[in-house]
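User: Just a sanity check before I run the rest of the batch. Below are the structure tokens for the first item. I only need the designed sequence back.
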């Protein structure tokens, strides 16, 4: 019987007070894992704890900035002491800045790279030694359509998510021998606070042009929901994926396979 259970595992999801991270952590709890999450400040952690309680989940929340190596070291040590050895790490925390590249400052570019690429490096580096001690582990990096495609105004984000795809493959290559599987999930366009500006109704009540664009580019003809990512994440976090390594699993409703519906087409 293929084992999709996470019973007895400790799963750490970064930036999981809400959005995609929250949906993944909730799914992990439903599959039997103890859930740990962090966010950037106490207010967000408290908000997340209330949401997990509301969902009947006894989560463990901590304040930690994934770009701060000292904070991350202390965070991982505290979790290991208070909750247990970390068996599953999901690098979910991330930001986006939608600015035309030539108008973006180097500081803005660096901030996106720092959170979306350096953060996953720092988190993975902090958990891998104990995973090796424990005989293995699972690392899941939340990539993006922008790990494969570019578009106007998201240069820093695409550079970070493209780098995250290759960091995923390199961790798989370097630590696969220690029974650590490192894979990515590439969500399509998901309805969360991060994409809310792309879905805002226009003053005349019509759909945002980008909203219409994504509907035309997605065979499923809809935006994804964070819950659409739960099953793929449980699969990659479970023993069922022990021979899957260095793979980016795109959960995009078919965007990457589809040229897009012609304007006014059937
Ligand atoms: P979101 O709603 O903006 O949530 C991101 C979370 O990460 C927030 O709780 C955020 O806290 C936290 N965070 C930001 N910087 C952090 C830091 N330095 N340390 C710790 N936590 C930090 O985003 P989302 O839509 O759920 O996306 C989650 C992940 O999926 C991101 O990596 C994103 O790039 C990726 N993704 C999203 C989509 C999509 O369509 N939504 C598609 C593909 C990939 P704050 O609230 O303080 O910022
Ligand atoms: C954007 C969106 C995308 C999504 C996601 C797609 O501005 O194009 O925010 O980047 O967040 O990454 O997979």
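Assistant: Here's the designed sequence for the first item:
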């Amino acid at each position: 019987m293929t084992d999709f259970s996470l019973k007895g595992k400790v799963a750490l999801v970064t930036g999981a007070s809400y959005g995609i991270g929250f949906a993944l952590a909730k799914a992990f709890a439903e599959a039997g894992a103890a859930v740990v999450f962090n966010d950037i400040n106490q207010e967000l952690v408290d908000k997340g704890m209330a949401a997990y309680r509301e969902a009947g989940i006894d989560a463990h929340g901590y304040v930690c900035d994934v770009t701060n190596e000292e904070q991350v070291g202390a965070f991982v040590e505290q979790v290991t002491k208070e909750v247990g050895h970390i068996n599953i790490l999901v690098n979910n925390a991330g930001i986006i800045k939608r600015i035309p590249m030539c108008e973006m400052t180097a500081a803005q570019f660096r901030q996106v790279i720092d959170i979306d690429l350096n953060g996953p490096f720092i988190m993975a580096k902090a958990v891998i030694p104990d995973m090796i001690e424990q005989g293995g582990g699972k690392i899941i990096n939340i990539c993006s359509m922008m790990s494969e495609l570019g578009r106007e105004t998201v240069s820093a984000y695409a550079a970070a998510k493209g780098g995250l795809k290759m960091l995923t493959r390199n961790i798989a290559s370097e630590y696969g021998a220690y029974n650590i599987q490192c894979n990515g999930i590439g969500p399509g366009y998901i309805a969360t606070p991060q994409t809310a500006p792309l879905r805002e109704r226009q003053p005349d009540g019509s759909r945002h042009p980008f909203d219409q664009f994504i509907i035309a580019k997605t065979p499923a003809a809809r935006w994804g929901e964070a819950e659409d990512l739960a099953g793929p994440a449980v699969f990659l976090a479970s023993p069922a994926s022990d021979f899957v390594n260095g793979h980016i699993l795109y959960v995009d409703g078919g965007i990457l396979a589809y040229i897009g519906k012609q304007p006014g087409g059937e």
